[in-house]
């Protein structure tokens, strides 16, 4: 009798047949294990969810308080029909996890999305030794090489200060889950007041309730006079670009935080004044380092430059790489909301 695979791809998503669970499924299933709460990995319609503690209130905010949700901490494990399942830090956003599955001596890890740099917000990435590793490669080209975040935030604070000194308000666009909180935690509050869009504020409250350390900045309300925002910086999701909501901040300058800001012309296409290269995904070197750190004999690559990156792993690193067709998107080049 042929032994079951530890992981296989089904129409609903990645599936562990021995444990009868799906990891980040994109169609309704009975049991879903969630790597993190971005919308391409966490979807409506599952009967039961398993996720990290820090994702609990964000998931309920997004899908409703009545979802059937069990949470677990990093390093804790469950045994399901002989499969040992555990969560390990991915460093992507608060609550993001790599899912380790072990059965009869074989180990597979589904990494979800990840980055190696400690952002001061998420629990930092930890390599997990395994035989098979499922990895994103959103930025899997050599051209993608991130600056240290201290340098990026130095540029953001300098931009804000310059705007304030020239009687302009600053509006910076970042995903409401993960990127917005990362930016908030690194702003120089001595420059001026900090405000957030309602969707960012709601997300902040959910994270704070789960003991994630986030700057609790006030949200913009309709009652606030324009004078309140003089010299301030406002954090908003990309969906607010060009919306009528922006009118009360005039005169203002705008900027986007994204890994795609390293691609020439992206800022112009998004009709913003400035762009800062800041990603919650690993760059080219980070991907290689993470994969080598697992010791995996086989790597499955999802969303991004899978063909180019896979060829590099095969020819240079001598690691067997396979493209895996999923519905995960990574950091969308359109900069749509997560």
TrEMBL record:
Enzyme Commission number, as recorded: 3.1.-.-
Keyword Transmembrane helix annotated: no
Keywords tagged on the record: Exonuclease, Hydrolase, Ligase, Nuclease
Enzyme class: hydrolase
GO function terms (MF aspect): exonuclease activity; ligase activity
Protein name (database record): Ligase-associated DNA damage response exonuclease
Organism: Fontibacter flavus
